[in-house]
Every structure is written in structure tokens, then in C-alpha cells.
Amino acid sequence: MEGDGREAHLCADRNADDIEHVERFPYVRDAAIFVGNPEDVTEQPFGPGMPGIRAWTDRNFSYSGYALPFDPAAYSDTERLRARLGYRRGEKVAIAAVGGTGVGKHLLGRIAQAFHA
Questions:
Q1: What is the DSSP letter of 115?
Q2: Helix (H, G, I), strand (E, B) or coil at 52
Q3: Could you tell me the pTM of the whole model?
Q4: Taking a C-beta distance cutoff of 8 angstroms, is the pair 65, 94 a contact?
């Protein structure tokens, strides 16, 4: 659908909603992590009159680089790993990554339901 003006308008409108949500509710997220490197993000704007994707991502995300192959045995001592990462003994920790679409909403909802407020 290259050149489809309606598609471009809908995409820019959705981007504007997402940007406004992040700016209006910064307390909703403890961390936002972009799996990759800064040079992976385009300089193009989110849409007409909107910020550049790279500049906005730089302000709102931390870059993790890429997850590289590793030896699971190096992480078998969970108490030592928890201490290295700053987690207390017995502290409940849940880390979930589902991507940038609504596809993972169900998974995140189930994870959230597993913990009491």
C-alpha cells in the first residue's frame, strides 16, 4: 500500500496517541527498553509535525543492545545472580517482554493478575 494517504494518516494518528500517552502518564512505566542500538532507529518523524522517531526514542527509552547467545550454566547460581542484579533474597520478580503491539496484551494481563496489588 505504498503511497496510501489514508494508511499514513491512520499510522500518524496512532503514533500521536501513543506519544501523548507516554508524555501524559510517565509514571505508568518503571522502564522502557528498546532491544537494539540507537543506530537501528530511523531519524524520520512519526508523522507530519511530530517529533523524530530517534530523538523521541532517545528521550523515552534505554537501549539494551542485542541479546546474544550465552551459556545458561553461567546463571545457574540464582542467589549470586539475584545479588549481582540487586534483588533481595525472596523478592518476587517478573520480567515480561511482548513487543510493541497489542498482541502481547493478554500475556501482560495474565502476569499482572498473578500478583496482588
A1: S
A2: strand
A3: 0.55
A4: no
Cα 20 to Cα 14: distance, rounded to the nearest angstrom: 10
Amino acid at 65: G
Task: Note the residue count of the chain.
Answer: 117
Q: First and final CA of the chain: distance in angstroms?
A: 44
DSSP code at position 45: B
Q: Which of 16, 24, 4 is nearest to 47 (CA)?
A: 16
Calculate the alpha carbon distances from 95 to 12, 54, 86, 111 in Å.
30, 25, 14, 9
What pLDDT, in 10s, does the model give residues 23-57? 999 888 778 889 899 999 999 999 999 999 999 99
Q: Where are the alpha helices (DSSP H) in 1-117?
A: 5-24, 53-60, 78-85, 105-113
Residue 8: Cβ within 10 Å count: 14
How far is residue 39 from each of residues 2, 90, 111, 113, measured CA to CA in Å?
A: 24, 38, 32, 36
Closest to 51 in 3D by CA, of 89, 18, 3, 93: 18
Query: Which phi-psi region, left, alpha or beta, contains residue 45 (left: φ > 0; alpha: ψ -120 to 50)?
Result: beta
